[in-house]
Amino acid sequence: MDIKLECIGQTLVVKLSGEIDHHTSGDIRDILDREISSGNVTNLVFDFDRVTFMDSSGIGMMVGRYKQISALGGKVMVIRVSPQLDKIFEISGLKKILDFGKEKR
Questions:
Q1: pTM to 2 decimals?
Q2: Is domain 2-100 given the CATH code 3.30.750.24 in the classification?
Q3: Which one, of 20, 77, 83, 82, lies nearest residue 44 by Cα?
Q4: Over its length of 105 residues, how does the chain's per-residue pLDDT go in tens digits?
């Protein structure tokens, strides 16, 4: 798993690559929690262009960040999702609470 962060104003863009599973979701959570708690972030954009796999721990990580950002009055967006991961987002119900960009992978 590789994580690249870019702050654009109060929006944190999180570019992920590789697999999001029980081995990596904790690291992602910790990194994002540090950034969000800095007080400079109110919106979060997950770029899934290079994500090849995500399991339930990745879903849990995203739900937790959604709750944090929502409490700050911000939004969470997911962009560039593969068709396989799009199915996971649909089945998990995340498509009902997160904003999804129109751009597909």
A1: 0.92
A2: yes
A3: 77
A4: 899 999 999 999 999 999 999 999 999 999 999 999 998 899 999 999 999 999 999 999 999 999 999 999 999 999 999 999 999 999 999 999 999 986 655
